[in-house]
């Protein structure tokens, strides 16, 4: 780039470049590195639109993570992502959600206590897939036993681009609703900029509401499918509803569903994001073929829902809707009983034709739209956050790397030693060199 151009013009040009080029530019010029690493540049940079698809391929133990460019070339540009070390170490790993190009995954680690007993530590890992950076965060008060359940949500604040994690406890069994007056640690929020958890005390969800673990993020709001358990004569009555959480104001709000959906079996309902709107999908059967009615939530205080269209694939196989492309086309999963393989395809609502993506798996797919981002570029690599302190472990990692084995030591409260295969040496070397 010419030195004759003013710096402001250079920065405007760089904001339109792909992330790979920006990472290279950081090594060319100290001025460019300083500007690219600035919070202003990071918050105003928006990269290409992609779809993240996770699935279990035949013959492999770990899931695959594939990124597909969601543009006119779809689905030609597929890239298999290198899954970070901290993600692969998670037990019972699941994707919590995606927001502003960051992926949040949840699970737990085991560490050995001084009494030589394994102890569980609940964790979430924030992963920026575009710049290969991960941040692990300890989730406190997660184990709830038989009395309580919990869900974890993730989103990025629209005003500050600060990633936040919210943990919600709810009463699991209806038999305990009358006897429990308050829920300990009912709502706790972690903010990455502070590196700490704090409890919310006002505007908390009613104790009669039971949360579903799957969330959807739309325009700075987190949405969970919920069940309101009303004590009536002869027992409890159950109503489907939605709970929303504003990541910016940290306020909860109840969203009522249309009457036909509020009394429907909860197994027949799911949520997704269509463009920049929340949609609820109602699964039914017509002429022995699966169908999905797509209801979109309208803007405004009333939170009205409008039925947009019906997905009718016109095949008798098992069909699930896993998400939508940027243009609104549904992405569906088809499972044939005679061939134990799941196939992923894009459904055309007009022709009712399915274009399969040549991605076949042994288990269900997850589909998350995301935009390339520089968020967390200014965060240290491999920094572990817990509820009381921040522990830096990168220097310890550097001294432990060799070509035969890697001993990965995580400081308290995850104190443990793990033997990792040589496949992870390159991952750690990359993190060390790009700190």
From TrEMBL:
Domain (F-box): residue spans on this chain = 1-45
Known SMART domains for this protein? Answer: FBOX
User: NCBIfam families from the entry?
Assistant: F_box_assoc_1
**SUPFAM superfamilies under this entry?**
F-box domain (SSF81383)
Protein name as it appears in the record: F-box domain-containing protein
What is an example of a Pfam family matching this protein? FBA_1
